[in-house]
Amino acid sequence: xxxxxxxxxxxxxxxxxxxxxxxxxxxxxxxxxxxxxxxxxxxxxxxxxxxxxxxxxxxxxxxxxxxxxxxxxxxxxxxxxxxxxxxxxxxxxxxxxxxxxxxxxxxxxxxxxxxxxxxxxxxxxxxxxxxxxxxxxxxxxxxxxxxxxxxxxxxxxxxxxxxxxxxxxxxxxxxxxxxxxxxxxxxxxxxxxxxxxxxxxxxxxxxxxxxxxxxxxx
Length: 218
What we know:
Layout: H1 2-9, H2 13-28, H3 35-46, H4 53-89, H5 91-94, H6 96-109, H7 112-117, H8 121-133, H9 138-172, H10 176-203
Helix pairs in contact: 1-3, 2-3, 2-4, 3-4, 3-9, 4-8, 4-9, 6-8
């Protein structure tokens, strides 16, 4: 992510906004791309004053809504054969198991899967094509898609923008020695907690298998 952020610094602001909209838009069509990484990097970049947070959020929301709508149209036209082709091309992200989980989410939550899917990596990619392939009414899809895209884009951008500004202000008020000590303390405490968790796990007795009773059902 830091490599992406350093690369974004070299671009003019308008190029950053177009890149955010483009990457998130293509990802929302059903192509696995690092849309969230680009958004996070751009939001943190906004905290330094290189780009404006409102335009980063607007670009992200536009890409999400338009990309999902295009993905919906493609999925409605291509149907399940399209999902099968995508699965063969991207087996790690869009394989049969991933498609099945996404379908279960749609079956359980209906159009809300589109809204909340914007916050889940798998559904963020599949929501549009899958909703189209399953013939979800477009008007309901569009409402959930627009709401999810706006909340995700503006919420993520301004949350990270605020965190970045606070961190920048905090770092200016402490010495480098204090920062190094804080990092070392964090690493040591993390190591100690992991070691203790492994010890507790190793100390737990393994439960014996219960005998199978006659006539019991499994």
